[in-house]
Design brief:
Lipocalin, about 350 residues, eight-stranded antiparallel β-sheet, globular, about 10% helix, mainly beta, Jelly Rolls
């Protein structure tokens, strides 16, 4: 009996210690930054930002001064079709219009954690019912959809309403305005995190306000969204483009802007068409060759080794400037007036080198 009591007490003590440990860890993470005193006058002040304002009906909104403006009503220069070609959507009267059969469009710039603002309007007169009426979608990282749908006096399945995280979380309420009226989405997105082996560490989360009304509150995503399926997470880059859906309905969009958050705001990244990247692929330098390798929509840098599995992934900061995330390596492609590539300038830390394209 004494042994059983001792064993039971030992188990309880172990549980108490484990619980105490986790409570202590949580308490540590919940604390303000310990590097600063309370009311510390030397602590950096918040950067001043012109907040802008949301659009309403005929008046388009204005983006905050620190936002990346993705569409201001003038052109689609910051967007491409999914294959990298110019988009076929129409720009007129300060908005863009989805053209049936033209396909999804995506941003050239890639984003992770962000605040995204989108204004949209359902077609007038309304046609169709359920999912066939004013259907489109806003995809964070091209994978995680906030549904766009005309739900003004139009019912459908709950997890397909406007403001839904498609097929996962219905909106808390239906905040739709009537067709033809401009509506706003304000989305706070936290991207998923993966470890070095590609395992999921933390899932994606979204908070969404539809016309200023909270419809998603830190909703946790089970994986990429999709029709009639629940896909598991698969490891992907920290930043990917935002995309808009062609669902066959002439939905209008305007005043689209994004603010990158946290660490993801430090280095802008872009995803350029494969046709451009193909020009860069090849061998550079006579002695000790540098290899620029292409795989789909990504470039890789091989230093004295042409095997892609041993190469560094390159990320685009501009059409000609690329960088490596894991080490301090940068590459700049030297282009000519004919559109060809003559060579590269590359840096390892502050050490600068040049190499001509040889193949």
């Amino acid at each position: 009996m004494n042994r059983q009591i001792t064993k039971h007490m030992g188990a309880n003590i172990t549980k108490t210690l484990v619980l105490t440990y986790f409570v202590s860890v949580l308490a540590i993470f919940a604390q303000p930054d310990p590097h600063w005193k309370i009311h510390d006058s030397t602590r950096p002040k918040p950067v001043k930002v012109d907040p802008g304002y949301p659009g309403f009906n005929e008046n388009p909104g204005k983006a905050p001064s620190d936002a990346v403006v993705l569409f201001d009503g003038s052109d689609l220069s910051k967007w491409v079709s999914m294959d990298g070609n110019p988009p076929k959507w129409i720009v007129k009267d300060g908005h863009m219009e989805c053209v049936q059969g033209s396909g999804y469009i995506r941003t050239l710039q890639c984003f992770g954690d962000c605040q995204l603002h989108v204004e949209w309007a359902a077609p007038v007169p309304p046609r169709g019912s359920s999912q066939g009426r004013g259907n489109s979608g806003v995809f964070l990282m091209g994978l995680y959809e906030v549904q766009v749908l005309d739900n003004f006096n139009n019912e459908t399945y709950s997890d397909g309403y406007a403001g839904a995280i498609y097929c996962q979380h219905p909106p808390l309420v239906n905040a739709c305005r009537e067709p033809g009226k401009w509506q706003t989405y304000d989305i706070i997105f936290t991207r998923p995190r993966f470890d070095m082996q590609g395992n999921l560490v933390t899932p994606a989360k979204m908070t969404v306000l539809h016309n200023g009304v909270l419809v998603q509150h830190e909703s946790v995503l089970s994986g990429p969204t999709g029709w009639l399926r629940r896909e598991p997470y698969r490891a992907h880059p920290d930043k990917l483009p935002i995309s808009l859906q062609d669902h066959g309905n002439p939905v209008l969009f305007r005043n689209i802007w994004v603010r990158e958050l946290g660490e993801d705001a430090k280095q802008p990244e872009f995803l350029y068409p494969e046709s451009l990247l193909k020009k860069y692929a090849g061998e550079y330098g006579e002695n000790g060759k540098i290899y620029i390798l292409q795989k789909g929509d990504r470039l890789f840098l091989g230093m004295f080794d042409s095997r892609i599995e041993n190469a560094f992934p390159l990320f685009a900061a501009s059409p000609v400037d690329f960088f490596v995330k894991s080490v301090d390596i940068r590459v700049k492609f030297q282009t000519n007036s004919a559109g060809g590539v003559d060579g590269i300038t590359w840096w390892v830390s502050s050490d600068q080198n040049s190499a001509k394209k040889t193949k």
